[in-house]
Amino acid sequence: MVVLNMKKPALKSSLSPAIALLLSAFIMTQNQDTPRHILAVHQAVREDVGEMITYRAMPTFRVSIDQLDPFLLLNHHGPQVYPPHNQGLPFGPHPHRGFETVTFILDGDVAHRNNSGHESVITKGGIQWMTAGSGIIHTEVSSEQFKKEGGGMEVLQLWVNLPSQLKSAKPAYTGLQDKDIPEIEEDDGKVSVNLIAGNWKDRKAPIQSLTGVFMSYLEFKEGGILNTSVDANRSIFLYVVNGSANINGQKVDELHIVEFAREDSGLKIEATEDAVILFGHAEPTHEPVAARGPFVMNTEEEIVQAIMDYQAGKFGKELH
Fold first, then answer.
1. DSSP of 13-47, one letter per residue?
2. What is the C-alpha to C-alpha distance for residues 306 and 311, in angstroms, rounded to an integer?
3. What's the pTM?
4. How many CA atoms lie within 13 A of 198 on its CB side?
5. Which residues have CB under 8 Å from 247's CB, separation 6+?
6. Where are the domains of the chain?
7. Does domain 38-311 have CATH number 2.60.120.10?
8. What's the Cα-to-Cα distance from 134 to each of 93, 137, 222, rounded to whole Å?
9. At 25, is the pLDDT very low, low, confident or very high (cuts 50, 70, 90)?
10. Which of 206, 233, 307, 312 is 20 to 30 A distant from 260 in Cα terms?
11. What is the spatial distance between Cα 248 and Cα 258, in angstroms, rounded to a whole number?
């Protein structure tokens, strides 16, 4: 048997240190995602509900209801302090059809009850995820303890559209306390990813939505940096609750929502001070949106039908 020596002679590097450094930087650049372009940064509009401080990030006169498809609406209630013996949140029994709601309880609590038999009080750091689907009636109020003792309140609610084939889905509800939400540290503990829906790297969230929505809220210490990527075909939802951050190189202050182009995938968030940011992404529906009050459908005819079905008791028993 003849054995051939296939060992190649060692190559002596002829690169100078400066050129080697430039080549290394070039290779690193090629491995990074191209930053997604920011189309606009929109300030939330003050729209108080009675004595409750409220900012509406969308829809507004700047942002149409279908502009960030499938993300429809974001209301930011508070922050404010309620005195003892208060009336609490004012959202008594009301119906919904055709979409999902995600409620972030940053302070205080929300007592949820619906006519599908779910009832819970979710406190600071928790969330509530409700699929209205074919139709549900629910209440969102403060607990008896909160109304008696008072305290800080800050609650945000996001509406996420459902595609036409899922608007008749069975209603569902999940309430998660703070301890039920995985907290993943990034950047040596300067960033906390509170994972609500979808997946983050190898971690699976407690909620896997009907449409593959990713949802989280991020907590930054000043100087914390988060680098991630989002598939170019997905819509990004990003709202700065408090603090400020440079997002793909652009300064974004609190109470602002970012509108991204649906192209490229790179996302870099660098906190310029301590900050809390809502961050999610999802596939757009690419469908027409017809919305009236608590109903979101595809056509006006479907809105009329939703109203008629509710009045006819087809959403189930009323709550009192």
1. P---HHHHHHHHHHHHHHTSPPBPPEEEEEEPEE-
2. 9
3. 0.89
4. 18
5. 38, 238, 258, 267, 268, 269, 270
6. 38-311
7. yes
8. 17, 11, 44
9. very low
10. 206
11. 11
